[in-house]
Amino acid sequence: MRTIIEKWACARCSGSGRMLTIADLRPCRWNLYGQPYSWFDLFAEMEGAPPRNLAKWRNAGEPGEFAPLCGEDHAR
Predict the structure, then answer these.
(1) Which sign, positive or negative, has the C-alpha torsion 45, 49, 54, 59?
(2) pLDDT tens per residue across span 17-49
(3) Quick one: 9 exposed, middle or buried, by C-beta within 10 A (0-12, 13-18, 19+)?
(4) Are 21 and 47 in contact (CB under 8 A)?
(5) Residue 15 CB: number of other CB atoms within 10 A?
(6) d(CA 70, CA 50)
(7) How far is CA 70 from CA 10, 53, 54, in A?
(8) Model confidence, pTM
(9) Nearest-10 Cα torsion for 42, 47, 50, 51
(10) Are 42 and 24 in contact (CB under 8 A)?
(11) Which of 17, 22, 25, 68 to pair with 49, CA 20 to 30 A apart?
């Protein structure tokens, strides 16, 4: 059974016949706000793996503005 967010993501791409993925998100502050319940966290959890452009995600925002991503050590 799909969650409401998964249904929304699927509906957003219904014209193309595919579901949104983390690769569709821009590495920006907006997609990281609300950690650990951000869009980034949601899509990374749904896909079960960090994105290929994880380095770009780590550079979003000011240094220290967001929590470490995908298992990074908190004591950087």
Answers:
(1) positive
(2) 677 888 888 999 989 999 888 999 999 998 998
(3) buried
(4) yes
(5) 7
(6) 6
(7) 24, 12, 9
(8) 0.68
(9) -100
(10) no
(11) 17
